[in-house]
């Protein structure tokens, strides 16, 4: 049991603050929450904000809010769609190592990200992770995918799992424990998610998924609670200790994340992975701490990506 709410996020933020801040293109920060979030993250040393949008509007809003933009670079763009395209171009050109959503629709930003010729696609599928700080659990728990992949195929889930493992490693977990969730812990041909869970575990055995320890199918209780796993007599290094919860589909993931937020007092930082740079998807409903945690997570992912590219070149 955590002794203090937010303590797991605080640790992530402190780690990110100790690093050299990386440039982050903030697409269309034209409302109070998105502009303040970007500026405060910059002032804390989590990132170097590049504010992309209607320059005069951003400056006027900052003046009204009494925000100091001296630590921010401003790049003019005419409207939300243009802001998204310009922010993505800065990332393509290597001028930004992270993207952050401002006050535009998520669809507008992601449309620019996934464009074949000018976007930020890689060989990986793009997926979303919630990094949950649940007071009753002694570790950060990653839930994926609860925001991008609606009905992921088995092939999609390989990418979803690998993206989440890479994220967990960037956060400092050497071999994260991955639970593939279903409604039960036995393989049942009538429940497709149990078949896919078994297949994913075998793919990990064969090296098609690397870096994590997989088990599934597991029900939620025996994935996160050791007592529940023991009652069911599940012998597994993952059961009861999962760091990553892989859900069957978006609906299940969304309900799980929101249940934790509204019934277990959890916070949910969010990040999109699988593109050339990590993407911070904030919500107007996010607390300041959650916004900062999302920035810290993206900064740690950007650092891991930088080190990986350096090793590949060496």
How much of the residues is beta strand, in percent?
Answer: 15-25%
Q: Compute the separation of the termini in Å.
A: 43 Å
Tell me the series of helices and strands, N- to C-terminal: HEHEHEHEHEEHEHEHHEHEEH
Read across the widest sheet, the strand sequence of neighbours is: 3-2-1-4-11-10-5-6-9-7-8
The best one-word shape is globular
Question: How much helicity do the residues have?
Answer: 40-55%
Number of strands: 11
Q: List unreliable stretches of 5+ residues.
A: none
Walk me through the structure:
The protein has an eleven-stranded mixed sheet with strand order 3-2-1-4-11-10-5-6-9-7-8, sandwiched between helices. The protein has two domains: 1-121 and 275-314, Rossmann fold (3-Layer(aba) Sandwich), CATH 3.40.50; 125-273, Isopropylmalate Dehydrogenase, CATH 3.40.718. With 314 residues, the chain is α/β, with parallel strands linked by helices. The mean pLDDT is 93. The protein is globular, with a radius of gyration of 20 Å. The protein has eleven helices and eleven strands. The protein has helices spanning 7-17, 32-43, 55-65, 80-92, 106-114, 154-170, 192-205, 220-224, 226-231, 250-263, 288-313, and strands at residues 22-27, 47-53, 73-76, 98-101, 127-133, 141-144, 177-181, 213-218, 244-246, 267-273, 279-280.
């Amino acid at each position: 049991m955590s002794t203090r709410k937010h303590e797991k996020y605080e640790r992530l933020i402190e780690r990110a603050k100790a690093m050299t801040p990386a440039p982050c293109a903030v697409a269309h920060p034209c409302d109070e929450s998105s502009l303040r979030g970007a500026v405060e993250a910059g002032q804390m040393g989590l990132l170097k904000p590049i504010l992309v949008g209607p320059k005069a509007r951003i400056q006027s809003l900052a003046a009204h809010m009494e925000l100091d933009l001296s630590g921010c670079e401003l790049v003019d763009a005419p409207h939300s769609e243009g802001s998204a395209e310009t922010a993505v171009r800065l990332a393509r050109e290597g001028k930004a190592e992270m993207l952050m959503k401002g006050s535009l629709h998520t669809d507008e930003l992601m449309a620019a990200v996934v464009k074949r010729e000018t976007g930020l696609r890689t060989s990986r599928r793009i997926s979303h992770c919630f990094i949950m700080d649940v007071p009753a659990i002694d570790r950060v728990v990653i839930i994926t995918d609860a925001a991008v992949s609606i009905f992921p195929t088995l092939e999609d889930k390989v990418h979803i799992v690998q993206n989440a493992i890479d994220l967990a490693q960037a956060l400092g977990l050497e071999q994260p424990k991955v639970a593939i969730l279903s409604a039960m812990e036995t393989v049942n041909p009538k429940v497709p998610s149990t078949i896919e869970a078994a297949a994913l575990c075998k793919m990990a055995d064969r090296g098609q998924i690397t870096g994590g320890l997989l088990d599934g199918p597991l029900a939620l209780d025996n994935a996160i609670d050791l007592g529940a796993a023991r009652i069911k007599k599940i012998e597994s290094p993952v059961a009861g200790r999962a760091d990553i919860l892989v859900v069957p589909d978006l609906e299940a993931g969304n309900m799980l994340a929101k249940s934790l937020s509204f019934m277990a007092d959890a916070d949910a930082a969010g990040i999109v992975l699988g593109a050339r740079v990590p993407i911070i998807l904030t919500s107007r409903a996010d607390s300041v701490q959650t916004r900062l945690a999302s920035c810290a997570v993206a900064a740690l992912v950007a650092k891991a990506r930088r080190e990986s590219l350096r090793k590949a070149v060496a």
